[in-house]
Amino acid sequence: MPVLEIAVIGHPNEGKSSVLSTLAEDDSVRVSPYPGETTECRSFPVMIDGREMLRFTDTPGFQNPERLLYELKKLVGTDRNLARLLRERFAGDTALRDDLELLAPVARGAAILYVVDGSRPPRRVDRDEMEALRLTERPRMAVINCKDDDRRYLEDWRSEFRRNFNANRMFNAHRATYAERVALLDALQAIDQQWQPVIAQVVSAVKKDWQMRLDASAEIILSTLEEILAFRLSESRSDVRDEQAFQAGLREKYCSAVAEKEKKAQERLRDLFRHRRFRYRLEGHSILDEDLFSETTWSLLGLSRQQLTLLGALGGAALAMGLDLLVGGASLGLFTSVGGAVGAFGAWLGGDQLLKGVNIMGIPLGEELMQIGPNSNINLMFVLLNRMFLYVQETAHWAHGRRDYPEAVAVAQQAGFTGRWPAGRIKTCRTWFEAIIHDQTGEIARLRPEIREMIAASLQEISRFEGANEA
Questions:
Q1: Omega before 374 cis (within 30°)?
Q2: Does residue 160 sit in the same domain as residue 240?
Q3: Does residue 200 lie in a domain region?
Q4: Where residue 147 sits, what CATH number does that domain have?
Q5: Is residue 198 assigned to a domain?
Q6: 468 located within any domain
Q7: Can you list the alpha helix ranges (DSSP code H) found in 64-140?
Q8: CA atoms within a 13 Å half-sphere pointing along the CA-CB vector of 200
Q9: Exposed, middle or buried, 345 (CB in 10 Å: 0-12/13-18/19+)?
Q10: 151 and 16 both lie in a single domain
Q11: DSSP 288-305
Q12: Is residue 193 part of a domain?
C-alpha cells in the first residue's frame, strides 16, 4: 500500500501545527502562539505496528499569497505540476521563500489539508490562498479549526470552501477526541476517489491500533493492581528506641513505594497513548493531583456506601480484619484497619468513619523485623482502579495539539467509575482481593481473566466518545 502524504497548509497562526499534532498523535510538533515559527517543511509519519501508514507534513504559513497566485496564474496550461514548475522558476526569490517551501510536498504529490481559524471571517488574503491551492490541482480538503467554538462565520467559510475544495470539515485541534480524529481521516476519502482504498485501510488500522491500546491498558492496570495489593515491606526493629516513630516511618515508606508503582504504571499508559514529550498539566481540581492515601482520594474514589454494605453482608468484616500471620502462635496487628471492618450496618456510618480504613496494617515478624502490607482494606483496590481509569480518560482525551487547559474541565469524581459496577463484579473483586492478600496463587490465576475483562469493559466505556461534528 502506498504511503499517503498530506500537507497541512494555511495562514500563519491559524492552528496548522495543532491540527497536525492531533491528527498524527505526535506531541513533538512545535506548537506556538507566535506566527512564523514554522519555516521549513517537516514530515510526521503515522506508524502502526512498525509500518508507516500515513504521513503528515507541517509547512510554513503563507507570506505572499497575492504574488504566489499571480505567478501561478501565468503558468496555467504550461505544466501539469504547477507547484513543481513554480518552485523551479523562482528558487532564488527570497520574497516567495516560505510560499515556495510550503508547496514542496504539493509538488511531490501530497494532498492538501488547508486550515483556517473559524473564529474570524474570510478575508481577501484567504481567497488568494485558496485559489492558489486550487490551481495546483491536488486533492484538497479545508478544515475549520474552531479554537473557541465561535461559529458566527461558519457559513461564510463554507461558501468560500465550496468554490475551491473537494470537502470541508470542522475540527477543534485542542479538544478533538479519538472519534473525531478518525472521522476526519475517514472524510479524506472524499477528496480523491482513487485514494479511497488507501484511506479506508488507514482508518481500519487506526481503529485496530486503538483497540490494542485499550487491551494493553487493561493489562497494565491489572498487573499494577496485583503488584500493589500483594506488596509488603519489612524492616529490622533492632535498636528501635521510639516504636511509634519507627512504625510511622515504615508506613511512610510503604505509601511512597506504592505511589511510585502507580506513577510507573501511569508513565506506561502515557506512552501507550503517545504522550511522550509534552507533559500535560491536569486541571487544578483533578483528583489525580491528590495523594493516593489522602482522605479526599478515598472518599471520592473508594467503594460507595451501597457497595460497602454489600461487602458487609458478604462477610466484609471478617475480610477486613486483615491477615493472620502467626508469630509464635499469636496474631498481632498494628494500625488495624477500621473502615473496611464494618459490617452491613457500619457501612452507613458516614464518610469520616469510613476514612479510618485508610490505615495500613503493620505486623511484627519476630523480635527483629516488622512487616507492613499487604493492605487489608479492599478500598485500596477500588481507589487504585478509579485513579487508573481516570488517568486513562484524561490521557486518551488530551489532544496532542493542545498545550494547556485555559478553562476548568469537569471530571468524573463522584463515586468513581466502579461506583456503577453491579453487585456481581464487586463480589468477584472481593474474592480476588482476598486471594491476593492471602497469596492463594491458584485462585488469583482462576479469577484473573474475569477481573481483566471487567477492567477492559470499563476502558471501552471510558473511551467511547461522541462522533465528530461535520462542517
A1: yes
A2: no
A3: no
A4: 3.40.50.300
A5: no
A6: no
A7: 65-75, 82-89, 97-102, 104-107, 124-135
A8: 7
A9: exposed
A10: yes
A11: GGS-TTSHHHHHHHS--H
A12: no
427, 142 Cβ separation under 8 angstroms: no
C-alpha angle 440-444-447 in degrees, rounded to nearest 5: 140
- 111-117 β-sheet, strand order: 42-48, 51-58, 4-10, 111-117, 140-145, 167-170
Q: Among residues 174, 200, 226, which one ends one of the domains? A: 174
How far apart, in whole angstroms, are the C-alpha atoms of residue 396 and residue 332?
A: 45
Number of domains in the chain: 2
Residue keyed to cell 473559524: 118
Q: Cα 341 to chain center, whole Å?
A: 36
Q: Which three cell numbers stand for residue 75?
A: 503558468
Residues 290 and 379 occupy one common structural domain: yes
For β-strands 42-48 and 4-10, DSSP reports them as: unpaired
Q: What is the Cα–Cα distance from 431 to 436, expressed in whole angstroms?
A: 9
- Distance (Å, whole) CA 138 – CA 239: 80
**Ranges of residues in the chain whose predicted pLDDT is under 50:** 284-285, 316-361, 405-415, 465-471
What is the reported pLDDT for 442?
A: 96
Residue 190 is given by DSSP the state G
Q: What is the pLDDT of residue 346?
A: 29
What pLDDT is recorded for position 75? 93
**Cell (9 digits) for 433:** 482481593
Where in the sequence is the domain holding 11, given as residue range(s)?
4-174
User: Residue 233: in which H helix or E strand, if any?
Assistant: strand 233-236
φ, ψ dihedrals at 48, nearest 5°: -135, 120
Please give the model's pTM, rounded to 2 decimal places.
0.79
Does 241 lie in the same domain as 314?
Answer: yes
Of the candidates 309, 338, 306, the one whose C-alpha atom is nearest the C-alpha of residue 415 is 306
First to last CA, the chain: 30
d(CA 166, CA 218) in angstroms, rounded, equals 41
Mapping DSSP to helix (H, G, I), strand (E, B) and coil, where does residue 246 land? helix
CB 360 within 8 A of CB 251: yes
For residues 255 and 170, state if they share a domain. Answer: no
Q: Looking at the structure, do residues 421 and 366 belong to the same domain, yes or no?
A: yes
Q: Mark which of 124, 159, 174 sits at the end of a domain.
A: 174
Do residues 170 and 273 both lie within one domain?
no
CB atoms within 10 A of CB 107: 19
